[in-house]
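Entry type: protein chain
Record version: 2
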Amino acid sequence: MKPLRIGWLYQDLNPGGGQRVCIEISRELIKRGYDVSIIVPKGRTGGRKIEGVKILERGPRFNSPMISILSSIPAMFLISKGFDVVISSMPFMAIINAWSFNRALKYHWVQIDDVCLFDDHSLIKSPTLLNAYKKTAKYSYHLPLHYIVNSEWTKRKFESDGGKEAVVIHPGVDTNIFKPLKSAKKNDLIIGTIGRRVRFKGLDDLISALKIVFHSGFKFHLRIITQESLNIPELPFLYEIVSPADDTSLARLISGCDIFISASWFEGFALPPLEAMACGVPVITTDSGGVREYAEDGVNCLMTPPKSPEKIAEAVKRLISDEELRTALSVNGRKTAEERSWEKTTDRLEEFIFNNSRI
């Protein structure tokens, strides 16, 4: 019997939580004997190579992400015919999935509030283009597809925009890679974060908070982990920008931090804080929505309001000053991470696919 052919339709494979979901589940599906492919517009792979998974680039190559995605649509319509199951993510891929001419089981994974994703004007600055995108995103919630969301928060946002019935499948974390690691003794306390250009990820808020902490007399070193080119202003404290080569390197960089901060305005789930918990690093996170699927203020993290550098600064000063609290958050965070795995995520996906599209 031929293995079931599963195809993912993705806009790109650049580093990000949504892309990690696709990659980690694909790895797990390969272990289970499935034939897995990821279809992306040409030039949008981010250099990814995944053992056992076919990465198929389609369409002409353009430097502009939007032009690249739109120009690839005809080719992606055609290639999606050869699969038994097709899973898409992001609005344009949902449309391709819904209206491509095949008899595959069709699923769409909503991983964040797609409608409001570009409201910070970091990537889409034109009001006309932003309005067109928002209409497309809302349309993508009403297609003849089976819908998956990554958290109860995403489900509420999805339903508030009139989305169809959706089931929640949580992402996971690989605790064999993301785990506490012994590091060389260091003089400076290291605060780590994931750096992104888009404003809603909160890097500017984090920097503002750390300026408050520094001017309050606390000493630390900021570690910004990123794969992007960031424009960091002159800062009064020491910082470094590091780009991990792979997940093992990423885990080592996170594990070497004394505190990890996520300052996002909103998140569908928020993988980096969970990965930091898995590494045994005390976490400060904003109440960004989907993070509440696993984060509990005062138990496995300290939680602050979004867009509030002053509150983030208070949490940082509290953690720096309280070693006992850092230890408690570290222990409880690791326990939280151990309850999540990509194996469990894939189990739920399999159950959804093979039980008449219901859990």
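Comment: The first helix runs from residue 17 to 31.
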